[in-house]
Design a protein that fits this description.
Elements: E1 9-12, H1 18-29, E2 33-37, H2 51-61, E3 65-69, H3 76-90, E4 95-98, H4 113-141, E5 144-149, H5 152-156, H6 162-182, E6 187-194, H7 207-210, H8 219-224, E7 235-239, E8 242-246, H9 261-266, H10 268-272, H11 283-294
Parallel strand pairs: 1-2, 1-4, 2-3, 4-5, 5-6, 6-7
Antiparallel strand pairs: 7-8
The chain binds nicotinamide-adenine-dinucleotide (NAD).
């Protein structure tokens, strides 16, 4: 099976460098027309540059088709204008990779409310803005592929990244509901948790691992998740050519004899027991399993 993006229009946010650039280059190489969005900021979200334009030049030099967009994902009107420009030039938008992001790392004790809010605004609200800006188009087309960028921090935690982790798990949650709402319209929504040596992680990777964790090795998982054959409602981890799946599971649980905290304490080991756990496909499924437990199931 060859995965082609011929005839598709893709938007990649934060594609002026790092992972977004790698996604944009490969989408274009495989035939997509690509909107390279990037505000061109520093890692902490300050400043600006024409990073998007440089990636467009790279794509064009390789024979591909792309346009630059210097809008900020935090500004809904700018994202609407970006989508309108893509539709006007190329007739639709089929793929959105929400990838733009910044860091303001500090322990929660030292983190200012402003740094918390800004990081949530760029990652979570920014992705919601871009998604909202393409949502109606994708529903009307009866075709859409959307990828949210989470992180191991969101899924599992990381010291010094409370703001980032909150935003990143929020994105996985956003994807789960949009996967349900988009299903009828062939709009599939997935989440990726990448691991790559970029400027965002440059101080974390030892020099000998920089090459092994190059961004290009995250591209296969990301592109599969926005292809015709994409699943929906999945969370994939990807780094250095290894692809993993992350699940939000639910244990069978215990129907308490007495509705008391003491009964929770007495049954805690059984509540936590993962034997027979499931992966609910919607929130309603949790309520159904409660009913089953009450009926002795
Ligand atoms: N590198 C990793 O190991 C890793 C791990 C987990 C998650 N991620 C996520 O992957 C994504 C890409 O990160 P990266 O590692 O390539 O870092 P990066 O800093 O190279 O890329 C982020 C890009 O987003 C752009 N950007 C920032 N704010 C923006 C805004 N308001 N509007 C438009 N563009 C904006 C930046 O200019 C930058 O080019 C991010 O969402 C990041 O959180 C990366």
């Amino acid at each position: 099976m060859t995965i082609s993006f011929e005839g598709r229009v893709a938007i990649v946010t934060g594609a002026g460098g790092g992972l977004g650039r790698a996604y944009a280059l490969e989408l274009a190489r495989r035939g997509a027309k690509v909107v390279v969005n990037d505000l061109g900021v520093a890692r902490d979200g300050t400043g600006s540059s024409d990073a998007a334009q440089a990636v467009v030049a790279e794509i064009e030099a390789a024979g591909g088709t792309a346009m630059a967009d210097g809008g900020s994902v935090t500004e809904y009107a700018q994202m609407e204008a970006m989508v309108a420009r893509a539709k006007q030039a190329w007739g639709g938008v089929h793929i959105l990779i929400n990838n733009a992001g910044i860091l303001r790392d500090k322990s929660f004790a030292k983190m200012s409310p402003e740094d918390f809010e800004l990081v949530v605004r760029v990652h979570l609200i920014g992705s919601a803005n871009c998604t909202k800006a393409v949502w109606e188009t994708m529903r009307e087309q009866g075709y859409g592929r959307i990828l949210m960028t989470a992180s191991s921090t969101g899924l599992y935690g990381n010291f010094g990244q409370a703001n980032y982790g909150a935003a990143k798990l929020g994105l996985a949650g956003l994807a789960k509901t949009l996967a349900l709402e988009g299903a009828k319209y062939n709009v599939r929504v997935n989440t990726i948790a990448p691991t790559a040596a970029t400027r965002m992680t440059e101080d974390l990777f030892p020099a000998e691992l920089l090459e092994r964790f190059r961004p290009e090795l995250v591209v296969p998982a990301a592109l599969f998740l926005v292809s015709d054959e994409a699943p929906t409602n999945t969370i994939l981890g990807a780094g250095a050519g290894v692809v993993q799946a992350a699940y939000v599971t639910l244990t069978r649980g215990v129907a308490l004899d007495e509705p008391t905290p003491e009964a929770v304490a007495a049954n805690f080991a059984a509540i936590m027991d993962r034997t027979g756990e499931i992966v609910p496909q919607s929130g309603a499924e949790q309520a159904m399993t409660i009913m089953q437990r009450l009926q002795g199931g």
